[in-house]
Design a protein that fits this description.
Layout lengths: L5 E2 L13 H14 L13 E6 L2 E7 L8 H9 L7 E6 L11 H8 L3 E6 L9 H8 L3 E4 L3 H7 L1 H9 L3 E9 L17 H12 L3 E5 H7 L14 E5 L19 E5 L5 H9 L3 E4 L5 H10 L4 E4 L3 H9 L5 E7 L27 E8 L2 E7 L4
Parallel strand pairs: 4-5, 5-6, 7-12, 7-13, 8-9, 8-12, 9-10, 10-11
Antiparallel strand pairs: 1-14, 2-3, 2-4, 13-15, 14-15
Amino acid sequence: MDNSPLVTPKDAPTQPRVGTEFDREMMQRCLLLARRALGRTSPNPLVGAVIVKDGEIVGEGFHPCAGEPHAEVFALRAAGENARGATIYVSLEPCNHYGRTPPCSEAIIAAGLVKVVVGMVDPNPLVAGGGIKKLKAAGIEVVVGVEEADCRRLNEGFVHRILHHQPFGILKYAMTLDGKIATTTGHSTWVTNQIARQTVHKLRSTCDAVIVGGNTVRQDNPYLTSHQQGAHNPLRVVMSRNLDLPTTANLWQTNTAPTVVLTEVGANPEFQGLLCQQGVEVVELDPLTPKRVMSYLYDRGLCSVLWECGGILAANAIAQGAVQKIVAFIAPKIIGGSHAPTPVGDLGFTTMNEALSLEDVEIRVIGSDCLITGYLPNS
């Protein structure tokens, strides 16, 4: 995805850049390191750290998963005595509280570092500037905001979880040029090209969960995995009120990725038992709505959720604030059909000025297809 042509609005605002060119280069290195743990750190953020002395990298690291040491600790271990008098670059403000691991701010002070370059302030109220304040009080020079936009984008799921107490929702769909996600018979294999599908697989590997409705299971029998050797597979979530689902489905094969089926209280106990025998987790929610589902997934510690559902569920997810970002693939195909399904169902809008205009829009060419990403207003 990153190597494809990119088009952004010409009037997109430009922010003054913080730090030197070398600072920005090192911060991008931090982000590159942090991405090695995509999909694996929730409810913690993705963080990378690089220690530099006399213009050379002497240590680096990233946070691999919750419960493991933070990025700064790995970088300090790698640097050893070379950390004394050096500069550390870290994509997120060092923590200043005791959780599963000790405060990184104290480790930095103890190591004798003289400068800390921070990508962004941690939105977590337990940190929220406290780490920076402690470092400055210890006489360490601190620079904040280097490549901040990229740092925030990498951790948009974590930031949204902290600020709004629910996971960050991404609605992904693929449609034809005339706005259809399937034919009138429901056939949808394949709307987009293979390169676009591989892009979706990579997107899944960055998310904590992927959600579909019962109709998607019945029509498409998806796997919802990353299809990549060694890559992270998200938690696969099926929403079904009545559990009118097939007894055999790829999603019930839990040896490669876990599956949880969310249903209403008391729905089809016999089928619930069948799913449990196959290793599928069944959870009853009241009510079974996108908003309630996101609250449940927040309680499970998730940061980012990918909605790969049909139009009706997608519309409900948008209306209930469960979606913040849109990832839309558009294939140069026309299939027609007045009753062929569309990616988003009825939102109740009757005039064009009610339309949801995406913000911070990016357009990429993926093979012969077009990929449009953007954020819903006030997301």
